[in-house]
């Protein structure tokens, strides 16, 4: 069972299933949401996901079709997970790998998506599939 939390520890979560996949996203919205060069999304079945605490939520249009709901801590602002009802995302929670702490070492990426938006100084990962759009081929 994997466990994660926000920085202050007021919102905690766990999932009791193997992740479906892990994908790095280079889209501009994911970069803004995380405040980093990309987001690392560990996709887990919603049926295996539980949380404690009271996360705040914000919805945004990805600009690529799906509308995402982001859950984050209202106290420390840590981004924790994303959800969407769009095809390909239904029934999953996209856990932000950084919120897993050291456990994120266990979930290396299988793909990088929206690669045209990758920062020029950031190289692609070797032996990881590359996609100009979404990861529908994974």
From TrEMBL:
N-terminal signal peptide: none
Keywords tagged on the record: Lyase, Metal-binding, Zinc
Keyword Lyase: yes
InterPro entries tied to this protein: CENP-V/GFA, Mss4-like_sf
SUPFAM superfamilies to which the protein is assigned, alphabetical: Mss4-like
Statement: the UniProt record of this protein carries the keyword Lyase: yes
Molecular function (Gene Ontology), one example: carbon-sulfur lyase activity
Pfam families: GFA
PROSITE patterns given in the database record: CENP_V_GFA
Coiled-coil segments on the chain, per record: none
Domain CENP-V/GFA: 2-108
Family the entry assigns: Belongs to the Gfa family.
Name listed for the protein in its UniProt record: CENP-V/GFA domain-containing protein
